[in-house]
């Protein structure tokens, strides 16, 4: 019995001794690394410089240098803390703690120009931004008014020439709104986004330059109501505003004049947009030119985003658009160099067409995808090549598959836009978008997508600048769609390299074909034009030295190895595009 009773006491004594040893070891281990620096206090060693040691442990054979931690917090002062001053509201707590207002630094925590605190009333905010873009662009592109000597068949081709393009744009964005927008939309919001541009083009011995002023945004937004406790809402916005139809902007990416109703449902699972818009004509650098007036062309656009519809991580979108055009002078007949006699070519026309589409963006395991498919149906009062009513039927499909391998992303891009096989059969089967500006297969780094491809005579362009498709629209009228066009097929491979947090390099190789060439053959009086448009190689490098969007340097180069289809339309050596873009943002 005595031994049984003594056992717990012995165990308890042993545990206590072990805990004391561990505590001593912990204190010693924590004390040394956090020792103050000798420059800030008296030396921690004894007067004879003998280092401290634990009882029962032999002293070290060599003197140890005290560990100094210069990054430690300073010792608290013995003086009493100052009485905290009252502040007007919670937005000024940072300033009340002694942090001064800094209007120069856009990331300063108390910058009223960036919406960090109210500038009027209790919840009235302001957000101001300024961006400057400097573009230097050497290029070899088709000339707008130079025709090559006619071929033996009488066919007409367009000459290419070397040019140097300079563009300087300064854009501002001013937003004034009321409401705390961290978890809910603003109660109301005003936005004004002007832009000033100067551009010059040097080609041979000719120079063309000039400046423009554009309004890229002027709108008012009003919060109508909250429909749930988690800030599902309905809002309305009216004025000049940015609008994108789908994930990549295949159908519409513009700054039109619009009346837009938008909101969310079911804890943000659904996002919807319903907009009635009118496109604004563009100037020579593709900025809004309100001085030309608003053409009689109305578009009704509606889309619904549905998150995780088929699979978690994938968002579906359903799109509907109705395009009605009654532009002025729609019955004016224009002549084009190379047009056969007796074959009128119509630059503008009345039409009513509807788009129905589906788009998908997300990932399935390691495979990322962004896809879109559109069907187009409607009619034209008079066709582009015929004076009779024309039925419009066209298809569009595009998909980009990608997979990430650490800092590398491999991409496969595929696109089909149907073309018109017979411009005189009263059926227009060429797909055309509402506006240009899609992000796909190299986007504006690609020569084919980025550059304007004009045709001799200046009546038609094979495609517009930053346009996705060879829609054969009338020159200077980028707003009017044209459904009698050759269409496009594309297959491309891409590689994105995130070399550092500041430097990204993208490589793209695209093979392009016309879908149908009958329209070009009739327009240029040239039989049997090949569908092989050509192959292009694209290199794009983006450097952000501060790992932010405030300073961006972009270098891009692209060359098209012209195929027989391109050489049938254009004369000269292989075209190319090189540009350097410097962006500064406040």
What keywords describe this structure?
globular; 5 helices; 9% helix; 44% strand; mainly beta; two-stranded antiparallel ribbon; disordered N terminus; 18-stranded antiparallel barrel; 586 residues
What are the SSEs and their pairings?
Blueprint: H1 2-31, H2 93-96, E1 124-147, E2 158-178, E3 188-203, E4 206-226, E5 233-240, E6 243-244, E7 253-254, E8 257-265, E9 270-278, E10 297-307, E11 314-325, E12 333-334, E13 345-346, E14 351-364, E15 367-380, E16 390-405, E17 408-417, E18 427-428, H3 447-450, E19 453-454, E20 461-463, E21 488-498, E22 503-513, H4 518-524, E23 532-543, E24 551-562, H5 564-569, E25 570-571, E26 576-585
Parallel strand pairs: 2-25, 16-18
Antiparallel strand pairs: 1-2, 1-26, 2-3, 3-4, 4-5, 5-8, 6-7, 8-9, 9-10, 10-11, 11-14, 12-13, 14-15, 15-16, 16-17, 17-21, 19-20, 21-22, 22-23, 23-24, 24-26
**Class by alpha and beta content:** mainly beta
Tally the helices: 5
According to DSSP, the number of beta strands is: 26
Which shape, going by the Cα principal axes?
globular
The portion of residues assigned to helices is: under 10%
Q: Which residue ranges are poorly predicted, with pLDDT under 50 across at least 5 consecutive positions?
A: 1-11, 17-36, 39-47, 330-344
**Main sheet summary:** 18 strands, antiparallel, barrel
Q: What fraction of residues sit in β-strands?
A: 35-45%
Averaged pLDDT: 84
- From the structure provided, what is the oligomeric state, counting identical versus distinct chains? single chain
* N-end to C-end Cα span: 84 Å
The Cα radius of gyration reads 33 Å
